[in-house]
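Q&A log
Question type: sequence-to-structure
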Amino acid sequence: MNWFESLFFEQSPLQAVCVISVIIAIGLGLGKIRICGISLGVTFVFFTGILAGHLGFAIDSDMLKYAQDFGLMLFIYELGLKVGPGFFSSFRTGGLRLNMMGLGLVLLGTAVAIGLSFGLDIHMSDMVGIISGATTNTPSLGAAQQALNQLGVEADGAALSCAVTYPLGVVGVILAFIFVKKFVARKEDFKSHSPNDVDHTYVAEFRVTNPATNGLTLREAHELVGANFVISRIWHEDKVSIPDSDYRLSSGDRVMAITTDDDLPRLTLLFGEKTDTDWNRPNIDWDNVDKNLISRTIAVSKPALNGRRLGSLKLRNHYGINISRVTRSGIRLLATPNLILQLGDRLTIVGETDAVNRIEELVGNSTSDLKDPNLAAIFIGMVLSLIVGSIPINIPGISVPIKLGLAGGPIVVGILIGCFGPRFHMVTYTTRSANLMLRGIGLSLFLACLGLESGAKFLDTIMKADGLLWIATGFIITVVPSLIMTIISMRWWKLDFATAAGMVSGAMANPMSLSYANDTLHNDDASVAYATTYPLSMFARVVIAQLLIICFV
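Response status: OK
Response body:
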């Protein structure tokens, strides 16, 4: 049996793989168990790791550090890659408000920490470590330690207090969500106020009654009104057609336009009259709107089209069809000529059957091609994440440069590559299932290693110095601000539970609570809010950690 003992207890790369795999497998299995209707999901891997560390299981420290950092990078980067295509669009619609709420949570937690520092007589050099552990934000700990070293103050207390408060920092936010879900949230709070299918388009029908418009070409009308719109169909004397930009409008024409809510008044002024027909109601049978034209949604699956401008394909001129909308990552966009196509985009095409079939052959529409993972974008992104995370950022008044680190770099690079990668012909599309699997592997690795590292010294740390006081203080710093901001954001700012949970998870830099929210709600609203809030909140915590050292030590 010596070979079996060496497989789990004799430190080697093989032993590290075995121990981590067993921890993840057991943790994921236990995470499915529901107690009072509550299950912790992948977060249970963390507790399994703590138990394994306490029982004496250990792996090589370099292997542990590598697996933990790699897992965190993989999870954060894939999250950024997933929300990247729609990030800036969602940021414009609600990102500023989410970031202000996230900063409010950061400042509220800091105020609570300062009050507890004076009330419980905890030295600020230890309190910065408690804050870092309570908010699961290791970059802020690193910045605080550097500031302490520059002042000639011992930094071991910060590292010790962070280690002892980190486990409950992981769980505290989840417990706050469970409390809100059970005792505060109402049924309507679980109805997404910003659903996955975000529609940034509006279909309207107009009648040309404006004498100034009569005789204008569509190109001239577009230049005159200065609004973005796409003409899907025009009825002229009861004959339907798909017009090109040289079509001349005539009095009495009925025009179906895809535009936005904001541009409706200008288009009504341009054409003269908006009809009462509701073209935005669900379940419209577009194929029966008229006999000569059909409407079909086709996926872009040919890599050659990735990064091409929609207008450069000249589909309307060559095939006599019209693309009215483009759906990307659940967000419906106007099919403007300058829109950069991405692999996986869904094009809504209107035209004659033969023409639409030819377009289908041109763009691919092959789901099997889209299932192939694009691994190059992942590894290129990870290298760029390390580079961006290592760039020192100098802030006036702060003696130590700020770095985004292993958590901040991947989220920023993932968002940028997911959004702008196709412009450089980088294939960034992955299926939802592939993205979820990679995120799950990354988070499981991170939690298993984090628990294993914490479990080995958890009880010893509690018995040292003021361990129990630190734990209680950190738990308060975690739970109280999370509870307050979750409830306020839902009641005052009318956020749904998913968006509120994602915002709080991002502000607390807590991917485990995000995973709990995603497992509970089964949509991407929490992930979008997390990615929107995380970069600024993380950066603010790093700066605040150094300011606390400068002001109070």
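Response note: The domain at 2-195+374-552 is CATH 1.20.1530 (Na+/H+ antiporter like fold).
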